[in-house]
Design brief:
Structural class: alpha/beta
Largest sheet: 8 strands, mixed
């Protein structure tokens, strides 16, 4: 025994990995957060929305995907505030989420109050405000991420895409695909694939990475929201 320090622990050889082998070490998820689906290799794809820094997400896609993200964010303990001009399509989700607790709240466009986000109570703001969403009254901040949903490419899209930390693109027309490709500097192969994407498939883009993700609803999500669809 060592005085005051307890027993000497067992001795083992150190586990050493050459620097050249570090790239081979990987885990199937890339971050803590919301599992948004699986990638092309069938591995879980995770969106880390609860962050200590502002995080802006723009999704050019369908309501179904945004609502699945809302449900899964709420399941991780985040509060979800939805700013929308079509509260009727969100009311069922707001009532069903949280098992009776009010973890999803609905607000008219321009009427969303400060959310008081913190590390212990992170917030996801979803802006479902149509083709020309006004500038947000509540913006991204520490522990408060903002997801803006655009049903199609609109005149406001270039500004939103440029300021977003993450961009999701679902099936769009060939002309829209060409415009998005220029804005996001996508490869010709990615641009050609956008008009042919299936329901539930999203191309998620950061300034450095591109990843196709298939989102499939759970039994409970499908029962509440129906099957995956691009068009509302």
């Amino acid at each position: 025994m060592r005085g005051g320090f307890g027993l000497v622990g067992p001795r083992r050889e150190r586990h050493v990995v050459p620097a050249t082998d570090l790239d081979a070490l990987a885990v199937p998820v890339g971050d803590d957060g919301v599992v948004i689906g699986v990638d092309a290799e069938g591995r879980p794809a995770v969106l880390g929305i609860n962050r200590p820094t502002p995080y802006e997400v723009t999704l050019i896609g369908g309501l179904w995907t945004a609502q699945v993200l809302a449900l899964r964010a709420a399941a991780t303990g985040a509060r979800v505030a939805v700013e929308t001009g079509r509260g009727q399509v969100w009311s069922g989700l707001a009532q069903a989420a949280g098992g009776g607790q009010q973890c999803v709240t609905l607000h008219e466009v321009g009427r969303i109050p400060p959310q008081g986000a913190s590390a212990g109570s992170p917030v996801l703001v979803i802006r479902d405000c149509g083709m020309r969403p006004p500038r947000g009254r509540v913006v991204a901040g520490p522990w408060q991420s903002v997801l803006t949903l655009l049903p199609y490419l609109s005149p406001t899209a270039p500004r939103l895409l440029q300021q977003a930390s993450l961009v999701g693109v679902q099936r769009v027309s060939p002309d829209e695909a060409e415009q998005i490709g220029r804005l996001m500097r996508l490869s010709r192969q990615a641009v050609a694939s956008l008009p042919t994407l299936g329901d539930g498939v999203t191309l998620w883009c950061t300034p450095r990475d591109r990843q196709f993700v298939m989102t499939q609803g759970t039994e409970a999500e499908t029962g509440l929201l129906g099957a995956a669809r691009r068009i509302d």
